Amino acid sequence: MHRLTLFDNVQFIYELQLAELELQSFGVDFQIDNSFRDFQVLNNSDEIKDLIKRRTAYFKMVDGEPTDYYQIIQKNQTRSVNQYLTHWIYPYKGKFHPQMIRSLLNTIGVKEGDRALSTHLGANEQDKSATVSQPLSNSEKCLQHTTILDPFSGSGTTALESQLLGINFIGIDISPLCVIQGKVKTESIYVIDEIEKLKNEVLASVVGGLVKTDENYYKLLDTLTKDEKVKNFYILARLLAVSDKSRRNRDFVNSFVKNVNLMLASVKDYLQIKGKLNLKLGNINIEVGDARNIKLQDNSVDGIITSPPYSIALDYVQNDIHSLIDLGYDVSKIRNSVIGVRGNGRNKIDLYNEDMKQVYKEMYRVLKPDRYAVIVIGNAVYQGQEIKTVEFTIEYMEHLGFELVHNINKIIFGLYNVMKKENVLIFRKIK
Description:
Layout: E1 3-6, H1 13-25, E2 30-32, E3 38-41, H2 46-55, E4 59-62, E5 65-66, H3 68-72, H4 98-107, H5 139-142, E6 147-150, H6 157-164, E7 168-173, H7 176-187, H8 192-207, H9 214-224, H10 228-248, H11 252-277, E8 284-288, E9 301-306, H12 316-319, H13 321-327, H14 331-337, H15 345-366, E10 367-377, E11 381-382, E12 385-386, H16 389-400, E13 402-411, E14 421-429
Parallel strand pairs: 6-7, 6-9, 7-8, 9-10
Antiparallel strand pairs: 1-3, 1-4, 2-3, 4-5, 10-14, 11-12, 13-14
Helix pairs in contact: 1-4, 4-6, 7-10, 8-10, 8-11, 10-11, 15-16
């Protein structure tokens, strides 16, 4: 009888629920000890043991042996348990918890190298095809295999967790800064040698004061490399220093040098753990786009995991204004395109709801029948009143033809008291 042990930091009911859903999605029969820390697998097999070790998010040990996820999170250049590998790069308000995303990818049944769906959630299709381990250049090629979509890809958490599990991913975001974040976190591993070759020259130019302005810095990068992946790495390194200077009044040069070294160390960590665990990485494609008009064919993606912006109460554009200006973007133009920013008072909420209706229509259109869409969302507080976003989302998704399969309450922290909890809503497209 295989014995499973939860991570020590699993302390909330929703985490236990997700751990159970993971096992159920793998067809595992289990019972939980009275301590709620250990599980016993009742239908033992080497195949089940291997599956649990390779894919689960909330278990650190299987029969005393470390899971892949336990080993992955040891590769961490930060003090935060959730910021392992490249997750930490660039501060982003309202990030997903990566452990939760890994678990949800398992729960909705998307699997490395095939099109299989979770039997626990009622799937009935099994199409298999090989996972390609090198990055593809466009969304249509990604769609040749199991593909997850995040129409609000943000800082790239779902992208990186999909990549680690060997699942192809398509992400879009209205913010070019978010797109750069996601690309750097998932693409730098493929150009680590080229990044390292340029390190000394880039650092010398900044430390020596040769590129004090943003314009000169970006011109320098254009002369040093034509590879967008390499260029993006050094663009985001600069933006991290810009952010540190703006938010914390840290010295720009010292911050830049520190962040380049930390970023490089994190990418090397990723490369090392990929080799140690023999990970077959999923293909990642992230582009600037509008979730209200997704450039994908009908019934083309195998699953959706996303969190709509809380922009009614949180000003994402203002939070990143220093970096957007440094990149040379028209901030007012970006602001006008962000869902939830337009309007005032009741009109602001109505505009947000109409925009989200269009997003949910698009999600329904591109998702394959009998597949799953996960929406992590909460009721924000705006002008002293709670906005019933969760109830609105459930009602409208069911109106479109989704069935609500699970509604998991999740406590959240760090959003400046505008929200106290979120709901993890798992829908199935039934018609």
